[in-house]
Amino acid sequence: MTQPQTSKKSAPSHPQRRPNSVEWVWFLSITLIGAALDLWSKHAVFAWLERTQNHRYTLIDGFLRFIIAENPGAAFSLFSGMQWLFIGVSLGALIAVNSLFCLGRLTSRWTLTAMACINAGVIGNLYDRLFNEGRVRDFIDVYVGNCHWPTFNVADSLLCIGVGILLITSLTAAEKK
């Protein structure tokens, strides 16, 4: 007599992984310190520059200065006035980054660092869009003669650092294969 077959649930091929306590501290520390540094620097520099005569201060003559600038668009003021689009994209990015983290998909320390920098940058600029009439406060002006890089802030720097780390890690991972 044959025994009836019982169905056994097979274990998933990729067990569910959650961030450990060290990863939580690392990710949240970079996110919170980065966002706080961005918001504090915007507040401090704008308050200081508003008291200066020309609303600007040269740090390195012919190369770097602080100025007051508010950007209603993306980089280079693209898509000015479409703050709801930027708010939506920012909220989507926050959901994606934090979901990847909470689901344990960020496995390397470099990827975790990159995504925390991106998280902090998005938070800093999203705060401005929500509470500064859709405009992001920028103050770092890099220039040579009459050639200016678009004015930026700490959040923009964190976004660039995060994307840069992701590019480098993806390129070095591709080389190892």
β-strand amount? 5-15%
Strand order of the largest sheet: 1-2-3-4
Give me the secondary-structure category. Answer: alpha+beta
Assign an overall shape: globular
User: What's the number of structural domains?
Assistant: 1
How would you characterize the overall build of this protein?
By secondary structure, the protein is α+β, with helices and mostly antiparallel strands. The chain has one domain. The protein has four helices and four strands. A four-stranded antiparallel beta sheet has the order 1-2-3-4. A hairpin with a 2-residue loop joins strand 3 (136-144) and strand 4 (147-148). The mean pLDDT is 90.
Supply the key terms.
single chain; 177 residues; alpha+beta; four-stranded antiparallel beta sheet; 4 helices; 54% helix
List the helices and strands and how they pair.
Elements: H1 21-49, E1 56-60, E2 64-71, H2 83-102, H3 109-131, E3 136-144, E4 147-148, H4 154-176
Antiparallel strand pairs: 1-2, 2-3, 3-4
